[in-house]
Amino acid sequence: MASHYSTTPQKHASDVVVATPCGACKMLRKRCVEKCILAPHFPPTEPIRFTMAHRVFGASNIIKLLQELKESERADAVSSMVYEANARIIDPVYGSVGTIFQLQNQVNELQAQLAKAKAEIFNMNCQLEAMVSTEMCRSSQTISQQIYDEFKHDSSESSSPFVYLDNDQDSSWDIIWA
Ligand SMILES: [Zn+2]
């Protein structure tokens, strides 16, 4: 069928072939055009990204999915697909769900460890409080003992229980007992 274009048709940007194909087109061995939908997300410097995504999802599905999305959402969708593809290659059964389970288990284990550590801290604080109050009790007993010892010491120096009274102060007793 003859083309309705002239011999030198004006090419659209979507038809302009670029010299350096993107990572996706390079891998698929096809011409990469200026408006290649895959080019912004699969640079030729990171061919492994497309290799992984293509192996799991297939190039046509990736293109179809990107076409259905807004341009602002495509980068996240590609990142997600590359991540999922990597996970699926590592774990063909669970893919990224396997990673989620693993991380969830790790969270549970860490929460259990945290609860245990909190309980230990609580017990240690209780022990510390008990020690401090015992020590306070002991030191107050020591002070009482010291006072008592001092009293006894002073008492033993005099045969009289009226330790603070000298003989010449006997008259004061008269006043007290009066
Ligand atoms: Zn391309």
From TrEMBL:
It comes from the Eukaryota. The keyword Coiled coil applies. Pfam families: LOB (PF03195). GO terms for cellular component: nucleus. Residues 100-127 form a coiled coil. Signal peptide: none annotated. Residues 20-121 form the LOB domain. Keywords: Coiled coil. PROSITE patterns: LOB. The keyword Metal-binding does not apply. GO terms for biological process: regulation of DNA-templated transcription. One of its GO terms (molecular function) is DNA-binding transcription activator activity. Belongs to the LOB domain-containing protein family. PANTHER family: LOB DOMAIN-CONTAINING PROTEIN 1-LIKE, LOB DOMAIN-CONTAINING PROTEIN 4-RELATED. This is Putative LOB domain-containing protein. The lineage of its organism: Eukaryota, Viridiplantae, Streptophyta, Embryophyta, Tracheophyta.
